[in-house]
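R.M. (postdoc): so does anyone remember the format we settled on? I'll just put the structure tokens first.
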């Protein structure tokens, strides 16, 4: 858990047993996961505690949330140097067959030229189709 604790403390998140377990689970995922996905991986877990843990991670830029249109928000790990600034944002891919959501970290969201006095804070780009596993 030493590496997990380091990932928490670099984002100013106090390590707790639950935070360590949730971060370990998130770091093992190949796609974004919902709160209920994480809840199903525990024998017994308080949904409120899991939700608070995920929100703490998001507020401290350890994870980001994705609304992929599936009806539940999904969460994925941010890269260690991510500040969730507009230049850190990337495209997400939702597979219409397996219902998995993937971060395409190598594809940045295109820069949007907003009108004068408009300021971009965040952006979300979702692409839907069939993933490599389902092809």
């Amino acid at each position: 858990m030493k590496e997990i604790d380091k990932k928490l403390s670099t984002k100013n998140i106090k390590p707790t047993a639950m935070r360590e377990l949730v971060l370990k689970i998130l770091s093992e995922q190949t796609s974004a996961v919902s709160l209920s996905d994480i809840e199903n991986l525990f024998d017994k877990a308080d949904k409120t505690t899991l939700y608070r843990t995920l929100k703490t991670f998001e507020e401290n830029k350890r994870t980001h949330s994705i609304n992929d249109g599936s009806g539940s928000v999904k969460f994925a790990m941010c890269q260690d140097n991510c500040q969730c600034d507009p230049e850190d944002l990337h495209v997400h891919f939702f597979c219409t067959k397996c219902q998995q959501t993937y971060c395409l970290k190598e594809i940045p969201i295109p820069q949007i030229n907003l009108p004068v006095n408009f300021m971009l804070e965040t952006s979300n780009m979702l692409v839907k189709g069939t993933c490599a596993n389902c092809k």
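R.M.: ...and that's the designed sequence above, right after the tokens. Also worth knowing: The chain has one domain: 2-129. DSSP finds four helices and six strands in the chain.
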